[in-house]
Amino acid sequence: MKLSRKVPLNALRVFEAVARHGSFSRAADELGMTQTAVSYQIKLLEGHIGDQLFLRQPRQIVNTETAERMLPSVVKAFDFLGEAMALAQQTASETLEIHSSPTFASHWLARNLGAFQLEHPGIAVRLLRVSKITDFNRDPADVAIRWGVGPWPDLECQLLGRFTYAPMLSPALAASIGGVNQPSDLLKLPIIGAQQEAWQHWFAAMGEAIPDLTSHKQHNYIEQDLSGNAALAGQGVAMLNHIYYPDELASGRLVAPFHTPSGDDVGVWLVYPHSRRNTPKIKAFREWITAAVAADRLRTEPAMPDNPDA
């Protein structure tokens, strides 16, 4: 049997509009129908399911329990149909809008996106640095790069990596105290982003007692790119990910005095709505970024013993 005979799609479209507006007349205006036609479609649907959907009260329409149970699934179904139509209408040239956490955007994506565009010249890219969590129901993003523990059940989530980190500072700052030879030497210097939990993880990984860093308030940055810039300027020691600063380490603008990297459960994730998982431009970006980040980690990160994600 054809889907159109089993599922009265037009009547469901009318039902969704009436339930959303709480009004037959406003639903009719939105759909370009008469109020009589709207009432007919609702009666048709009620006959199809064998239950009443709306209580007609003076000056208002009230959803029944049956309507309340139906509505979320009907809305989701029309969202999927909308995605299918958008997919069918895509042209050869399209734009992929990426919302990314600031440091990943400035210190990895911006440096590597050119390779993606060479592989996919028909896809234009719009990259936005964002500090807030992207709301795909409201924001125009196609995908987002999120920093956190994850995964999140309401989204498709691809773990790009849990990156290693270590204290880094300018060589001039290290020389100012006669060199940094043991973890306690770091406490003689300003600690950048001292409230970040990474500092506790690193000292614990080094077998050291976790120090009290509450007095280090001058450079209390949250974003790592700000911490890195402060470290490069010689303002203190920052806990930085190796993947973001390979060139600075290779050139000697930054030094990482200790060869024991650390890591934790926080990762970088590619996220997007479940309904978009088969969108060609998103599939292309997912395949490219997963491979590119994995290759860059092999190049930039020191090995971590007993860490399967290193």
From TrEMBL:
<dbReference type="GO" id="GO:0003700">
    <property type="term" value="F:DNA-binding transcription factor activity"/>
</dbReference>
<dbReference type="GO" id="GO:0043565">
    <property type="term" value="F:sequence-specific DNA binding"/>
</dbReference>
<dbReference type="InterPro" id="IPR058163">
    <property type="entry name" value="LysR-type_TF_proteobact-type"/>
</dbReference>
<dbReference type="Pfam" id="PF03466">
    <property type="entry name" value="LysR_substrate"/>
</dbReference>
<keyword id="KW-0805">Transcription regulation</keyword>
<feature type="domain" description="HTH lysR-type">
    <location>
        <begin position="7"/>
        <end position="64"/>
    </location>
</feature>
<protein>
    <submittedName>
        <fullName>Transcriptional regulator</fullName>
    </submittedName>
</protein>
<comment type="similarity">
    <text>Belongs to the LysR transcriptional regulatory family.</text>
</comment>
<dbReference type="GO" id="GO:0006351">
    <property type="term" value="P:DNA-templated transcription"/>
</dbReference>
<dbReference type="InterPro" id="IPR000847">
    <property type="entry name" value="LysR_HTH_N"/>
</dbReference>
<keyword id="KW-0238">DNA-binding</keyword>
<dbReference type="InterPro" id="IPR005119">
    <property type="entry name" value="LysR_subst-bd"/>
</dbReference>
<dbReference type="Pfam" id="PF00126">
    <property type="entry name" value="HTH_1"/>
</dbReference>
<keyword id="KW-0804">Transcription</keyword>
<dbReference type="InterPro" id="IPR036388">
    <property type="entry name" value="WH-like_DNA-bd_sf"/>
</dbReference>
<dbReference type="InterPro" id="IPR036390">
    <property type="entry name" value="WH_DNA-bd_sf"/>
</dbReference>
